[in-house]
Amino acid sequence: MTRPPGPRAMLHSGLCIGCGSCVALAPPSAHAAMDFDGYGQLRPTGSAEWLRSGSAQLSRTCPFSPAALDEDVLAASLFAPAQRHDPAIGRYLAAYAGHVAEEEFRAQGSSGGMASWVAV
Ligand code: SF4
User: Fold this and answer.
1) pLDDT tens, position by position, for the chain (120 residues)?
2) Can you tell me which atom of ligand 1 is nearest the CA of 18?
3) Measuring CA to CA, which residue among 28, 29, 37, 30 is closest to residue 6?
4) DSSP code string of 73-103
5) Sign of CA dihedral 68, 24, 56, 45
């Protein structure tokens, strides 16, 4: 059996999304915290020993750990009534697509500019 990954291994893999789960579950002795990296993304920090140490708990809770359940398994359990499935997006009840009709919002926004348009 391979050794479970620690936070540092997840960071180096490029799979850390900065969710903070590992920090929330870390013991006080780890001095764990979330901090922004040079790209403005939240990343776990802490003692070198904690960052190196893998655990079964981290493997179960880090969303991108090799041991974590994938989205299809989770969705089958949590969203059983959603019977539609697409290999690209997974299980779903319904899917809608749209964009803002005002061109400047659409051109400058992501996701069709919807969030910016609603906020304005
Ligand atoms: S639990 Fe979250 S913050 Fe910690 S290594 Fe995994 S993805 Fe990153």
Assistant:
1) 577 889 999 999 999 999 999 999 999 999 999 999 999 999 999 999 999 998 888 888 898 888 888 888 889 899 889 989 999 988 999 999 888 998 898 888 877 888 889 999
2) 3
3) 30
4) HHHHHH-TT--EEETTTEEES-------SSH
5) positive
Extents of the domains making up the chain: 1-68, 70-120
Instruction: Please tell me what DSSP assigns to residue 110.
Output: S
Rounded CA separation 94/83 (Å): 10
Q: Cβ–Cβ contacts within 10 Å for residue 22, how many?
A: 24
Q: CA 57, CA 39: separation in Å to the nearest integer?
A: 28
Say what the pTM is: 0.69
Alpha helices in 18-55 (DSSP H): 21-24, 48-52
Query: Which residue's CA is the closest to the ligand 1 atom numbered 7?
Result: 16
Residues in contact with ligand 1 (CB, 6 Å cut-off): 7, 10, 16-22, 44, 62-64
